[in-house]
Amino acid sequence: MALKTIFVLGSLILMSCAQEPSWLGKYIIQTLTVQDSERILTTSLDLELGSLISDVGNTGEVKEVINFQGIPRNDLVAKIFYSRDVGPNLVYAEVKALKQIGEFHAAGYHDESIVILMEKKPGEMIADTVQWKQAAYSKRSYFLREAKQKYCEKVAKIATTKKVYHVDDNDGNFLVQFDNTTETICSVEVIDWGVALFVNEPVPNEKEVYQYCIH
Questions:
Q1: Can you give the pTM of this predicted structure?
Q2: Tens digit of pLDDT for each residue in 164-191?
Q3: Deepest in the core among 6, 52, 98, 125, taking most CB within 10 A?
Q4: CA distance 23 to 25
């Protein structure tokens, strides 16, 4: 049975379910130290932002990065936390997770908002794809099942190699790519690491993590 996470007025309530596997560790937000926050609070980012990528969710926006520290960039995105309802520990937890999986670039303040710079991933949210917009309800259900399978494959690989387990599988937390104009999803990329857990030793195999994720 999968873990549950609930947001109430910007606070994260962690709910554990019975029969959790032994390899599933603590939520990253539960492991934060002073060192995880102090650098973010004292860093000002020299940053030029571009077009809006997404404003889905309750945190703020994701935008393209045009220039960082005087250098043109097309390989980064900026996650901007506008909402004061979002607790800062959620930001620090996402930074810690991104560092663990090797996708973190920088974090700090820009125009009075906390910003995380991270690796840019290929793909779109499934609801933004042409295939989704043109699909009937039954086909959309098929797309979601296919995407969930590939999402869990990716989650399992990251969990067993980087020792971080991504919890929230809603369709705003992964990007998909279709095989050209076909209705076949060829890849899924996991995004939004604010809610994640460490993986305990001994590290499980990918099949075990996949089975836990898919159910």
A1: 0.88
A2: 999 989 999 999 999 988 999 999 999 9
A3: 98
A4: 6
